[in-house]
Specification:
With 230 residues, this protein is an alpha+beta fold. Helix content is 20%, strand content 40%. The protein has a ten-stranded antiparallel beta sheet. A hairpin with a 2-residue loop joins strand 4 and strand 5. The protein is globular.
Amino acid sequence: MKKIVLLISGLMCMLSGFAQEDASALLEKIKTKYNQVKDYEATGKMKTNVIFIKAPLADIRVFYKNPDKIKIKNESGVSFVPKGSVNINMGNIFTLANYTAIDAGTETLNGKKVRLVKVLPDGETGEIVLSTLYIDEAAMLVVKSKTTTRENGTYELDMSYGKYASYGLPDKVKFTFNTKEYKLPKGVTFDYDNGSSEKEKEATANKKGTVEITYTSYSINKGLKDEVFK
């Protein structure tokens, strides 16, 4: 009996090892696909749904340069952009140099079977603690991610793709975060005070907020200059 238990344990360890290797290989292939984008300039509309901020639907331009430069410009003024939303393009995950990828099985998301891969950065100094990626293996696309950070709590990205899917660029991104765990960036001049009492403000602060960007066009790999991000 003891031999059987040992044999089963050994097989489980072997299978676990194979699964982990598969997850790492899958992630590397997807990284290669996403990293073909060296820079882009995109246009779109941004909808902010945060209970204590009055933000209209905004026409925006988004500038990105690999590996980690991104700027969101509101054509009519300053936009509320939570700190974590600068990672709207998965760049924070796919630029990790050292990490462990763990196969977490499969799940059905929006009627489609997706593969779950947990990404744990090596070391303890980076902002990201853990990220779970929901991957459409057939399309080699990340359709959702759930990321826990050291400073900004946990946030989620939901992505849908269209004509720019071959670059790994979504047509729509929905960024969901806990409003209590995010701080307004410096210089933001939105009407933060809605006249509520302190008790009401405290109650509404601990809610989910969302930022949705619907892209209308991308201009990809045209050689954006660093000055754009200053």
